[in-house]
Amino acid sequence: MNIFDRDLWREIFSTLTKNMLRTILTTLGVVFAIVILISLLGATNGMKNGFDRLFAGTATNSMFVWGQRTGKPYKGFERGRRISYTMDDVDMLREQIKEIDILSPRIQLGNYKQVSKVARNGQTSGSAVFGDYPSIDKISKKDLVEGRFLNQKDIEDRRKVAVIGNETVKLLYKKDEEPIGSYIRINDVYFQVVGVYKKKDGVNFDGQNAVFIPFTTFQKAFNSGNHVGWFAISVKPQYKVAPVLSKIKKLLKRKYKIHPKDTRAIGSFDLSQIFTGISAFTMVLQGFSYFIGLFTLLAGVIAISNILLITVKERTKEIGIRRALGATPKAIKRQIILEAVVLTVFSGMIGFVASIGILTFLDNKFGHTEYPFVNPSVNLTQVFVSFILMLLLSLLIGLIPANKAVKIKPIEALREE
Asked: Which of 7, 210, 244, 376 could form a disulfide with 206 if both were Cys (CB 3.0 to 4.6 A apart)?
């Protein structure tokens, strides 16, 4: 009797449907196990997708470096000396640290977190005004609504152009006015608007009411000279950010005569640490999901094994007759194992369908809000691994009642009442 024999499957179907209530209750354990496993995996993926959306457009291998006040006296300099960077530092870092991919110097009008007066036709907006190079858009992408971002020609010609945010447009323009091509005034200096960006759903380090102008224009218009506020830096994909940041600090400390152990003089923010932490967090959640799902699934298939042990006891006389008529132990064992597999797979399919419904509900409920939960779904690999795991457990657990069945002796079984 082979596995594709019609009579074999008819007999399996007859056995499993003989007591439908018991069969249905038996399958619930596996159904719940698959629902828990797939739902947890899908929710974890949804959270990961949410974090990806939150940081969309931001380089994951980036950092920011700025100058602060020294915390230690060193080589004749007193504690509390202010460290300020210049454009010479940009060239030095690019030449001596080959791991750097993009280095974009930045400067802000006024002090950090301060806003400047931006005006137009009697309307004003308190906005953060940044002097930037076009390369900043590769580190922190702006979602443009219309127009363009800064380009190299703006830098070379020191054009008085600006890219403004939607919030600035609301404050300075009437509803039917077109901002592109119009002029705004920043500290009594006129700039032509060439681009408008909209609010991002995710992280925006510059705020939603910022104005971006060319770095070289900023130097000339606001007399900032050779000064640089801070550096936005991304490293090449094959390198890690932390060692590169350490090299940058070491180089800057040597140039500005900062104590090697001074941790206050140079401020920094390693954005890659956030992404690493998020990745580790989602991996732990995924492992936790498999752990919970595995033991719940194990409990479900054990319940199936117990029910099959009961059915083997009930079918003792039937098994004895089949053995007496020439059925081999292998054939008996194969049927019992197939019954375990059929019950488990059928339960698993119901669980998969129910899980899809739950994940669809979660996506409709949270997937279109600001909550970091996007497209909670499972990929084919996770489905395949879950299915194989379920199948292997059913085969292993099915061996218990199968071995019990083959140990039944025909003579003793025929005497069974």
From this structure: 210
Residue 245 token pair: 């940041």
Distance of CA 182 to the CA centre of its chain: 40
d(CA 167, CA 389): 52
For residue 408, is pLDDT > 70?
no
User: Dihedral sign, CA of 387, 389, 391, 394?
Assistant: negative
Minimal CA–CA distance to 187: which of 232, 141, 240, 224? Answer: 224
Residue 178 to residues 120, 154, 182: CA-CA distances in angstroms?
13, 22, 7
3-state secondary structure of 325: coil
DSSP string across 123-185: EEEEEEEEEE-TTHHHHB---EEEE----HHHHHHT--EEEEEHHHHHHHS-TT---TT-EEE
Of 170, 258, 158, the residue nearest 208 (C-alpha) = 170
Phi-psi domain of 121 (left: phi exceeds 0; alpha: psi -120 through 50; beta: other): left
Specify whether the CB–CB gap between 107 and 220 falls below 8 A.
Answer: no
Please give the C-alpha separations between residue 159 and each of 126, 142, 173, 213, 217, in angstroms, as whole numbers. 23, 20, 23, 9, 6
- The model's pLDDT over 382-401, given as tens digits with 9 standing for 90+, comes to 788 888 888 888 788 777 77
What is the C-alpha separation between 285 and 327, in angstroms, rounded?
A: 49
Give the predicted TM-score (pTM) of the model.
0.72
Residues 133 and 232: beta-carbon distance below 8 Å: no
Residue type at 274 in one-letter notation: I
Q: Considering only CA atoms, give the Rg of the chain.
A: 34
**210-214 and 62-67 as β-strands: parallel, antiparallel, unpaired?**
unpaired
pLDDT tens-digit profile of 239-263? 999 999 999 999 999 999 999 999 9
**Pick from 299, 308, 314, 338: nearest CA to 400:** 308
Q: Which residues contact 44 (CB under 8 A, 6 or more apart)?
A: 282, 285, 286, 289
- Residues 6 or more apart whose Cβ sits within 8 Å of residue 243: 99
Are 333 and 403 contacting, i.e. CB atoms less than 8 angstroms apart? Answer: yes
